């Protein structure tokens, strides 16, 4: 006769995992490139063991290395956005601004870029010319030079017109060392402006949607804004540009790296009305929608007012706002206070709500 005795099995929530671990994913899925939990898992379980070193382990937007006595920031990124041109920018703008901004998040002054073009056979040269001109214009606006590059062509049907890869280097001033691990309880969390415009701008063109008002990408270089912030607060604790995965992912990454909690006030996060309306229509959370010209800063409390004023005096920071603080409670978690007076956990997304946005 079967044993029908009930047994109580201890439940350990810390052992729960969703999605299943990398070893249970035999193939790459779109979410692996989305900047969320799947991307983090891919990096942790595949790339870090393969490349493992202390510089890479810091997991910053760009690596800070010392060469010949100089502190350099070094970063690389690839761009596969669809469509190539969208309201407010193009893949060329993104390729420059994205890498420039990654360097700036390490406190560096961006200086030089490389640019690699991967072209699909059959793409019109007029399209390639428009992209190249956009790269040149964006580089000039950011105060950097494209000093080297590469071109490859893949067979028709094996690409999507134009993909770009950019790498960049910049000089990190002495005494400047923002990184996710340096956030501490008491830090004030500041965002440089309204969030969510880039992802919604891409989606509106891709799907032919209208939301009652034009949504334009926020793509912009942030090197000058960071310099203005460092001028009044050289010891900024952490900086991040919330691209894939949006503001929520950046906050989560800093909370995890520093072992502290982050509390934000949902109504204090600036979201354009058109973005809010579009997110409501599409069932998206604006905290997870990508940006390409925004940053989030963790600032010592005694310098917060000075940093906020410096940001608002700069064009790309005119909409800066305090959205929360770093706390000792719930280490590694991001919590939002809602307009109804409750709280909710702002978790790391699995992938990205809108793929192919950068």
Molecular structure report:
By secondary structure, the chain is an alpha+beta fold. It has 9 helices and 14 strands. It folds into 2 domains: 50-171, PurM-like, N-terminal domain (60s Ribosomal Protein L30, Chain: A, 2-Layer Sandwich); 180-345, Phosphoribosyl-aminoimidazole Synthetase, Chain A, domain 2 (Alpha-Beta Complex). 29% of the residues lie in helices and 23% in strands. A hairpin with a 2-residue loop joins strand 3 and strand 4 (89-90). Helix 3 packs parallel to helix 4 and helix 6 (223-232) packs antiparallel against helix 9 (304-312). The protein starts with 36 loop residues before the first helix and ends in a 13-residue tail after the last strand. One of its GO terms (biological process) is protein maturation.
**Any idea what the CATH architecture of the largest domain is?**
Alpha-Beta Complex
Name the helicity range: 25-40%
Secondary structure tally: strands: 14
Walk across the major sheet and give the strand order: 9-11-8-12-10-13-14
CATH topology of the largest domain: Phosphoribosyl-aminoimidazole Synthetase, Chain A, domain 2
Shape: globular
CATH class group of the largest domain: Alpha Beta
Percent of residues in β-strands: 15-25%
Structural class: alpha+beta
- Oligomerization state: single chain
Fourth-level CATH superfamily of the largest domain: PurM-like C-terminal domain
Whole-number tally of structural domains? 2
**Radius of gyration from the CA trace?**
21 Å
